[in-house]
């Protein structure tokens, strides 16, 4: 999830924001047995462990760590069922040239900004940059995965 947290930028844009209490209302009992919840933290909220996603390009951070308004990392929180914790002891990615790309999982993305493969994208922005020529009609056959992703 990449919620619309309240921050100075959002206040200037007069965008919608999400109340902090919504996180405590997530139904973790509904999470798949090996499910994982990733929540991006874009403001200065507190958390137990400091998790950072370092954005790199050509093996180097995308910008300097000393820039005033921009940093080469994003904070996030991971949550899973207790029996699945050992599956997620490390998170890795490839050196990408995109704003942000998660490793490919079969998942639900809340507050999505774009459409991703094997993902149900929910939010106000996923279709903004899409062309109708990229959409599949209900009558069209959608290729099925040969085996489930795990």
Automatic annotation (TrEMBL):
It comes from the Eukaryota. GO terms for cellular component: nucleus. Transmembrane segments: none annotated. InterPro entries: MT-A70-like. This is VHL domain-containing protein. The lineage of its organism: Eukaryota, Metazoa, Ecdysozoa, Nematoda, Chromadorea. It holds the Pfam family MT-A70. GO terms for molecular function: methyltransferase activity.
């Amino acid at each position: 999830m990449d919620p619309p947290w309240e921050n100075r930028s959002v206040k200037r844009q007069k965008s919608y924001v999400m109340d902090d209490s919504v996180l405590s209302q997530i139904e973790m009992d509904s999470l798949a047995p090996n499910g994982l919840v990733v929540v991006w933290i874009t403001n200065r909220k507190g958390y137990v462990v400091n998790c950072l996603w370092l954005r790199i390009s050509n093996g180097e951070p995308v910008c300097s760590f000393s820039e005033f308004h921009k940093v080469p990392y994003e904070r996030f929180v991971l949550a899973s069922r207790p029996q699945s914790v050992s599956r997620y002891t490390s998170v890795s990615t490839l050196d990408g040239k995109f704003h942000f790309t998660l490793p490919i999982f079969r998942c639900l993305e809340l507050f999505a900004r774009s459409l991703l493969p094997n993902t149900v994208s929910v939010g106000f922005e996923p279709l903004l940059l899409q062309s109708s020529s990229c959409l599949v009609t209900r009558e069209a056959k959608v290729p099925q995965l040969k085996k489930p992703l795990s």
